[in-house]
Amino acid sequence: MKSLIRSSAAVAVLAAGLTFAQQAKAFEFSAVGGLNITAASIEEAGVSATAISGKSTVAFGGLAAFGVMPGFDLETGLVYVPRKFGATFPIIGEFETQFSSWMIPLALRFNALPFVSVAAGPYFMMATGNVSTTVLGVTAESAFDAAGISSSEFGLHGSVRVGFPIVPTIRVFADARYLMGLSNRATDAADSTKFNDVQVLGGLSFGL
């Protein structure tokens, strides 16, 4: 009897998940915010940084999702992403760098279960403001070209989201994201600078 009840419950959950996945939403807007932790891979004139420490910053923005077929949404938006990291080189010593960018992600999101969805796709970043560098406690700001960092970046990202409805058209969610930068951000041909980020975001979604 107990096994029959468990089997029935499993079937009910599966049916609910399939029903949810088959429903294509017309439009959904999400306000997001949370932590961004940057990991950098830096090499200057063939010498790699001996130590790199990622620092946490606060990212925020908005995302829009459009139903393209049952269970799948096309997602894009605009997210403000500050990056901050420390690096140590032989002779030069330790320095800390910070700058900000606007990110435009584009992803296909699969609503796998009623409360869980996954997404993947490319992103584009465009830097804003200046680069702030701190060496031996002294901070200086410079333009991206002067700092040897390109102002744009292309990469890939993935997302796992867990959300729960508050009312039929509003959901609260948590979103874990990984960003893998594919562009070499160093402007000097002899150098290499690439960034990866982990984002832990939360927010509200408003659907139609």
Write a structural description.
The protein has 208 residues and is mainly β. It has a single domain (2-207), classed as Porin. The chain is built from two helices and eleven strands; from the N terminus they run αββββββββαβββ. The protein has helices at residues 2-21, 144-147, and strands at residues 28-44, 47-48, 51-54, 56-69, 72-89, 93-110, 116-135, 138-142, 152-167, 170-181, 192-207. Strands 1-4-5-6-7-9-10-11 form an eight-stranded antiparallel β-barrel. The longest helix is centred in the N-terminal third of the chain and has 20 residues, at 2-21. Residues 8-22 have low confidence and may be disordered.
Question: Can you give me a brief rundown of this structure?
Answer:
12% of the residues lie in helices and 68% in strands. By secondary structure, the protein is mostly beta strands.
